[in-house]
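Chapter summary example.
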Amino acid sequence: MRFLRPGPVQIAWFILIPAAIAQGRGQASVDQLPPPLTSRIGQARPIDDLPPSTMPALEVRPIDLNTALKLAGAENPDLLLAWQRLTEAEAERQLAAARFLPSLNLGTNYDVHNGNLQQSNGNILSVNRSAIYVGAGAEAIGSGTVNIPGIVLYGNFAKELFSYLASRQVVVQRGAATVAVRNQTFLAVALAYSELLRAEGRLAIARQVEGEGRRIAQLTADYATVGQGRQADADRAATELAGRQADRQRFEGDVIAASARLCRLLNLDPSIRLHPTDAALVPHPIVPSPIPLGELIATALLNRPELADRRAAVAEALYSLGGARVLPFSPNVLIGFSGGAFGGGSNLVRPVFGGFGGRSDLDVIAFWTIQNLGVGNVALVRAANARLQAAKYQELAALNRVRAEVTEAYALTHASFARINSTEKAVESGALALREDYERIQFRAQRDVLPIELLDSFRLKARATYDYLDSIVDYNKGQFQFYVALGQPPADVLARPVPNAGIAVSPAMLPDADR
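The structure predicted for these 515 residues follows.
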């Protein structure tokens, strides 16, 4: 078999994705901002002075995507079930081929009769007879042939031939289906791992945002305490802080839920909390964008295992139809040969029990069957033809689905890439705006400047940071889906140079060879 067997996972395209937003891409940390006004106002609480986590105490185990994919290849129930179905199809193909070989029967029989028998002319005889046979075959009684031949070959040649050819296509079909299940399993693991990264990244951002919100709330409360600000502003800032605390608590639950979903795919205990070992989350292009969409669709049509599955199903239906058509013209054949020791006797012929000697029997029988006066044969042909047409329609549906998946993934990855650039700029501008508002408050450029004015910039920066994280995760997920939609084609099919003309690409988004 040329289909993949359990072993080392061959997925170099699933590159490890990191767990927090990439450093050095222009976003400013709140620790880099000027400190709040403290000479006339009370000391603000530090950013990392957060309430304890609400996450339950679970055993934390580190994991990376490569390890997750290896576990999925060895432990995922859906993939293991697909392998067993392929093994079953191979056994059925072997059985179909073995039907061309005769079967061997070894046995013995002993027969005793006491009482009347009728001859063919009507004469009644009182006979006490016995017979014994030992050898290849069984049930040798009287003058007839051995009823259970020692070596027997029985069947319809055309039926067995087309059944064997169809069974070969079933193996191809199950093999392609196994590859498709493997691809979808690895894709599901990669997507679940990406969602775990998203949850971890959101939690990290939420903790940072909560710290910034706590600083603003403390600063606003201090201004209200000394009479330089309104109590309503302090309450607004406290409400904002409570909302950010709720966000952090919700994301803590999302981390556990995302870990449980990944554990389900890896057949692990969900009470274990998986934690990505990656240090940064960066966009990772897998499919080079300069390849035209039409060429990508053609690549998918050549490589998708789902289409190979449907093509094999059509071939199987064709063989079944051929077998149904030739069935009335193909004879049923029975060839039997027996050999052994036979003896016996009766009260009419002496000795009563004896006369042992060797015997051999050869029987060759051929007959043609017209099922149900031909009506049954016509029904078999019609049913086989209907299955063939259904297989063709299923192939067409799979073809349309593959083309649609490639087109959707193509559009999704390009849109996600554009979102990365937009949200990155939003993070940069949001961080600068928050810095400028802090500086205005610290140096009191205007007498009527109050800390509550930090809230707007704070919200915009927080939203932009979340959007930036989501755009990177969505882009990587889209790349995984895009690559699987192409059927995991060979690397040389996608080996194209990536021109930078007219495309705003940051160094972290280029392949290693282009940096």
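To summarize the output: The first strand starts at residue 59 and ends at 63.
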